[in-house]
């Protein structure tokens, strides 16, 4: 094949470069550079840099492939006009859009790993639900006897893994990833989860159980921060949401399996002098899933972007190649990841502060903190984990027997898992923001219905049925919206150079407020009544809707690098834009008007608009609905 350097893309590329070079808006230039640093180079320089990178990767034989990959990454909409690309090259780029889910088996194997790690997380969360029916009495802190001390101790034992995770364990994510990689961190944390679940089953007092559950936080926090980032760094942009959200989907599966264990061991009698064998088996059963993860984690490829950050370019390419359909796609994605890392280092070279300080002081990073903080906070204050931890107690207070309450909890867990499946596709079709704007009002209505159901006279079958229905509906509306979005969104919110510490922050927000919810539910029930407590969380869902509408940008369909432009738009501009377009939303979604268009909001959309106009193609609708 002739050297690609001699090829030409025609007037379109030359004019585009002239247009870029003539820009006077420095902030837009910075956003463009961060979104796609390849556009700052001339065609000849870009090709030379790509070939030099191929040498770095110890793949001199693929210099032409890397050069084509660089052009495909720099001008993603113009590959059909590239004479340097063979028909096979063009077909691979077309199929990436038309057959999004046709990916190598290794990529899906990595997703299975993430799914099992998430199931570990979910089971850790729910086995305590069944144990709550037994260990308080055995350890001298019985429920329902009007003791405020017992209420708080019960809440602390339930919540302490999440406070431990938020305040301590999650902040070990960055050093663990730095020294052990994504796979190593997953292996270590699953080992901790396995040991601490067995430890919890062997405790002989409430304070001993509390210490074991504090240690469990170190098996929860770093894992929940690492797995979504690992998935986000390995998956193509077009299906990133659907694959990263597997974390939440299979967390829900783990929660459901926790209820299965609760029911399976409910009637196990004490044997061999062991008191409370049933709840001990419930807690200990959560040690089984992490063993499967530990057995297969190192058969999966390491994150290519992690290898790039360590300068291990050969390993990075080999890893990326295992998860892409063609060498061209692997070269394109790896080279773009390399250049964006170089650009980030250049942009931040004059900032002599810690990464934690940069995360707070740099506006783009601060916007990522706000977005991830909103979705993580609302994942808890939408009220979902009230049912995950206390459903058996809630159903008992509605009039169900203990075993029936656990059976109803299993039904809730099944809804939580099954109704997450639609989000696998909808999260990348409708987008993260759209799913939240639909989900929050529906969750609020479900909780209002649940609270109102407590007005039905006690002892009535209708009372139990309506309370169960309300909680099931709340779960059904949560599972494809606020369920999968937070971890997916947070994994997309931070640039590579602070992604580990940014995800640590996001996960710490999630687990801290998870702990707050778990700790405060018993006294909240006493202060507000169970009915009032459901109304309380129904109101928070409406607050969540407002926060998403005015403050949360959309991230669907963009590469991790292009997201820099999205998070560079100020909150002031975002609020003004969304407020201005309220009539547009009313016309489109309430009156079903078609053919409506909006001006683009983000810099990368404006560039895309210019490119498509020059290419004579249709202008896409702006993101950020």
From TrEMBL:
Broad class of the protein's primary localization: membrane
Pfam families linked: Sugar_tr
SUPFAM superfamilies for this protein: MFS general substrate transporter
Transmembrane segments: 106-123, 184-202, 249-269, 369-391, 403-423, 435-456, 462-480, 501-521, 533-552
Cross-referenced InterPro entries: MFS_dom (IPR020846), MFS_sugar_transport-like (IPR005828), MFS_trans_sf (IPR036259), Myo-inositol_Transporter (IPR050814), Sugar/inositol_transpt (IPR003663), Sugar_transporter_CS (IPR005829)
GO cellular component: a single term: membrane
Topology relative to the membrane: Multi-pass membrane protein
Residue ranges of the region described as Disordered: 1-23
Catalytic activity: myo-inositol(out) + H(+)(out) = myo-inositol(in) + H(+)(in)
Coiled coil residues, start to end: none
Molecular function, one GO term: transmembrane transporter activity
Record-linked PROSITE patterns: MFS, SUGAR_TRANSPORT_1
Family: Belongs to the major facilitator superfamily. Sugar transporter (TC 2.A.1.1) family.
The protein's name: Major facilitator superfamily (MFS) profile domain-containing protein
Annotated organism of origin: Pterulicium gracile
